[in-house]
Amino acid sequence: MPHLLHIDSSSRCADSLTRRIGAQYVAAWRRTNPEGTVAYRDVTEEVPDLVSEDWVTGVFGPADHHTPRTRAAVDASATLIAEVEAADVLVLGVPMYNFSVPAAFKAWIDQICMAGRTFAYDENGPRGLLAGKKAVVVRASGSDFTDPAFAALDHHAPYLRGVLGFIGITDVEFLSVNGPAREQIEAGLIEADRAIAASLKVL
Ligand SMILES: Cc1cc2nc3c(=O)[nH]c(=O)nc-3n(C[C@H](O)[C@H](O)[C@H](O)COP(=O)(O)O)c2cc1C
To answer: Which Gene3D superfamilies would you find in this protein's record (predicted)?
Structure first.
């Protein structure tokens, strides 16, 4: 039975494009996967912890340095990691903020990147441990980053491809709405429907 994890990270609610399009994507996925299950997390409602000294000690420090606080920090990460491990498909609603991802989403990334759990180093270098998953990133931005004037400022898509690939999620698709397309979608969601349909290969 396929399982989907849906994450939202826009600070906007009713007006958010990434929330609307992500929800549409998940609804379409449910239609094509009637047996499937869905988990949802809004990282703006419950912002993941920032990496703390307790977390670093809990993950990297020797066992005799561990305390109830370091264990709690690692347990909080482990909860988020377990949600990702359980998923076959991740739908990540991630607007562009200041040419990168929202801070709450970055906090989530920092919690799920854990040595020995989601990535490891061996004689061949780094190895992602979350293989076999697909990620769909629903992204919205004000500027059109296909415009060469803006392309160099895009620290969103390259970063997400890089960090997701680092933990083993190499099948990453972007549903990206920006610039003029974004305005059309805000007006009627027509383009978004088409992008979602093409991505799911339905309709
Ligand atoms: C705090 C903030 C920072 C933003 N920074 C950028 C940016 O660097 N580049 C850009 O093209 N758009 C930027 N935008 C525009 C958003 O990416 C755009 O409004 C998008 O639709 C937000 O996603 P949402 O509709 O899901 O809330 C920013 C918006 C906000 C609120």
So the answer is: 3.40.50.360
